[in-house]
Design goal:
mainly alpha, ABC transporter transmembrane region fold
């Protein structure tokens, strides 16, 4: 069964049954994303107030800033508690379903399995799956809301600069898609090599008596060294390919910043925007969570695009 089908089944049978909990979690994620995006508004408000020497507004800045920080902190606390609760419920259901299924098989099935491996599936493997599912869903929704809130804030501050930023980062979609497609292919080759190394080690260790009898230690060592070197070479190819995405995003971020500073200087000189608008725009792209959300959404889009092309081409191969 393919990974997509497995995830779809897990979602239908074990996650969506807690749709009430998920719907209750959604507003909390919205609050966290909105509070995160509002930091740019705080900086705009503070900068404009200082530039205008408005002491009444300046006096409000600390209270407003702390209010938003407290709201976001409360949202993050609620998000952590609710996410953990959903994950533990899913974990319990998965363990119960696995145990019930295992109890229905015959004795021969038990005889073929190591007891330690069975216990590990209940205590370790299923825990990883349960938490990964909930964390992935939460992160995807939270990052999407953060991106939407950040884009809305940028357009509210200045639509011209926002259009420039969106245009620059849109340029990253195609090269990131190519990087993701190449990484997918290299990962498949690397996994095949890991399988080859595993089979080779099993063959050598299983025939240790034969190796010792005919003094084949040097030959088997050379075979193992060659397999290890090939595994290293493929791993470095994959590392080089993956290392390209972050510098690409960094360069595009620099281009966006340069464009913002240039256009903002012109627009401020013509009284079309304020210095507070500029500080707010920089804050939207410079904050860690907003920048991370932008980068992850772009990389996710690139991987989805590469995956769609692979799925389209596979029937013709």
């Amino acid at each position: 069964m393919e990974a997509g089908a497995v995830l779809s089944r897990l979602w239908r049978q074990y996650i969506w049954r807690y749709k009430i909990d998920l719907l209750a979690l959604a507003p909390v994620l919205v609050v966290v994303a909105a509070a995160s995006a509002s930091y740019a508004w705080i900086l705009k408000f503070a900068t404009d107030s200082i530039a205008a020497k408005d002491l009444d507004k300046i006096a409000l800045v600390p209270a407003v800033a702390m209010g938003i920080v407290v709201i976001r902190a409360a949202g993050m606390w609620g998000q952590a508690i609710m996410t953990q609760g959903i994950a533990l419920k899913i974990l319990r259901d998965l363990q119960s379903a696995m145990f019930a299924k295992l109890m229905s098989v015959d004795f021969a099935r038990f005889a073929r399995e190591d007891v330690g491996r069975l216990v590990s599936r209940f205590t370790n493997d299923i825990t990883i799956v349960g938490y990964a599912l909930v964390r992935a869903a939460q992160t995807s929704l939270r990052d999407s809301l953060t991106v939407i809130g950040s884009i809305a804030m940028m357009f509210w501050l200045d639509w011209v600069l926002a259009s420039v930023v969106i245009g620059v980062f849109a340029l990253a979609a195609r090269p990131l898609s190519a990087i993701a497609k190449r990484a997918r292919k290299q990962t498949s080759i690397a996994q095949e090599q890991i399988g080859h190394v595993t089979a080779l080690l099993g063959e050598i260790f299983g025939a240790s008596r034969f190796v010792k009898t005919y003094s084949l230690e040097r030959r088997e060592t050379e075979r193992a060294d060659a397999a290890f070197e090939e595994q290293r070479r493929l791993g470095m190819q994959l590392a080089h390919n993956r290392a390209r995405s972050q510098p690409l995003l960094e360069i595009l971020g620099g281009l966006a910043l340069a464009g913002i500073l240039y256009l903002a200087g012109i627009r401020i000189a013509h009284n079309l925007m304020t210095i507070g608008d500029l500080i707010g725009m920089i804050a939207v792209g410079g904050r860690g969570d907003a920048r991370r959300a932008f980068d992850q959404r772009l990389q996710h889009y690139a991987e989805r695009s590469a995956g769609c092309r692979d799925a389209h081409l596979r029937p013709h191969r």
